[in-house]
Specification:
Blueprint lengths: L3 E4 L7 E12 L20 E8 L2 E9 L6 E2 L5 E3 L1 H19 L7 H21 L3 H14 L2 E13 L4 E6 L3 E5 L11 E7 L6 E5 L8 E5 L4 E5 L5 H9 L7 H9 L8 E10 H9 L2
Antiparallel strand pairs: 1-2, 2-14, 3-4, 4-7, 5-6, 7-8, 7-10, 8-12, 9-13, 10-11, 13-14
Helix pairs in contact: 1-2
């Protein structure tokens, strides 16, 4: 996706800067189950990533649902409560919040994340109340087996401008690689949704960790040329290699090297790339194609 911004001053040839964006996502291998595999979740698919560009701003997000959390399916076999669904719905609310707040107005990634989390909580409470009696009984049985049903996800949300201004909020162990290199702090937090049974009336209770307890961290950086988001399914070797050099995903040699690195992780893998390019850089790369 390219979005061009033209700037011109007296006696200066117009210079074009634009975004190059790309997503790379693959599902992890199927899992083994100690009991009946039919009761498990064969495919992972908990990684959610996306981006869009409006004029001189690129918005991006990456979420990684916890793959070893329980999955509750409705009578049609569709996810009703799961880490995968939590990640997907947070992604939808993030996009909605960006548009509602006005993409060309002040952007506050932390506020957007907090509001999206509250919307998820309200939506899931309503969903529990609307469960059929059969599904409610099945969910109560699953909660009884595990004492409580916990689902969770990590999340990165940010914005990069063509002027190189970066704002990014992150919760959890997904990674950001920025160029020029500006190390960002590690974060082990998560968004949690917990379903338990009220012993007094037998109803299902939905809880969540307060937003301040998610360890959400927000950073603002200047003069950034690119940012790469990677879920924890991307190997440490790959992350180290990306940090060692200036990334350029339009360079065929760079892309081939990324593809050649064996990840060796039993997890979903997702990379979201946002680069700022100029005409000169683009032409140099294309000549090497």
């Amino acid at each position: 996706m390219d979005e061009k911004l033209y700037t011109q001053s007296d006696n200066v040839k117009p210079k074009t800067s634009y975004f190059y964006t790309e997503l790379m996502v693959t599902a992890g291998p199927r899992k083994d189950f100690k009991n009946d595999a039919n009761e498990g979740d064969y495919d992972l698919g908990e990684d959610v990533a996306g981006c869009f560009v409006i004029k001189d701003r690129a918005f991006f997000w990456l979420l990684d649902g916890t793959s070893d959390c329980p999955v509750f399916k409705d009578t049609d076999g569709k996810d009703y409560f799961s880490s995968r669904l939590l990640a997907q719905e947070l992604g939808w609310h993030i996009q909605e919040a960006i548009w509602e707040s006005g993409p060309l107005k002040t952007f506050d990634s932390r506020v957007i994340l907090e509001n999206a989390f509250h919307k998820i909580r309200d939506h899931w409470e309503k969903r529990i109340k609307e469960l059929s009696e059969d599904d409610k009984e099945r969910l109560l049985q699953l909660i009884a087996e595990k004492t409580q049903l916990i689902v969770s996800t990590t999340v990165i949300l940010g914005m990069l401008t063509l002027n190189g201004e970066l704002q990014v909020s992150h919760v959890g162990d997904s990674v950001e690689v920025v160029h020029p290199d500006s190390p960002l702090p590690e974060n082990k937090g998560r968004f949690f949704m917990v379903m338990t049974k009220d012993d007094e009336n037998g109803e299902i209770i939905l809880k969540n960790n307060p937003f301040d307890d998610t360890r959400c961290q927000t950073e603002s950086l200047q003069k950034i040329k690119s940012i790469i988001l990677a879920s924890d399914g991307i190997s440490k070797n790959t992350i180290a290699w990306l940090k060692m050099r200036k990334p350029d995903f339009r360079d065929p040699a760079f892309r081939k090297t990324i593809a050649a690195i064996r990840q060796k992780t039993c997890d979903d893998k997702a990379i979201c790339i946002i680069q700022i390019l100029t005409d000169d850089e683009s032409n140099d790369t294309r000549q090497n194609d």
